[in-house]
Here is the input.
Amino acid sequence: MGDVQEASAPEIRSAAGHAFRLGEYWGRSIGVLQGEGTVVAFPHSDDQTVSCVNSTTRKFVETSWRWCSARRTLKKMDDPDQLQDSLERFYDLACEVDTEVGQSSKFNWWPGVVAGW
Here is the structure.
């Protein structure tokens, strides 16, 4: 759910850095790291780690709106093989939009979202 902050100073503060809030998803606050532009998911509890989502805000927005649209179709699928194939294709798309998602273990958000959808 989008909830872009209005304040001019970063609202999220953590050991990973200060970030401008974009919204919430999967029990985490999504933010853009100040000075870097990397999109990060900050957990609401201490038993989870910070996850790097996308290398840039633009790539995050593109992948996120595609995911929101794809989920509507995925929810209607009743063939497990077709569903798995579609999830794999979406992950491939996420890697195409942001090559760092597929090339770096640092960006582990989308594999988790897709696998645990």
About this structure: The two ends are 15 Å apart (CA to CA). The longest helix spans residues 57-74. The chain has one domain: 12-115. The longest strand covers residues 17-25.
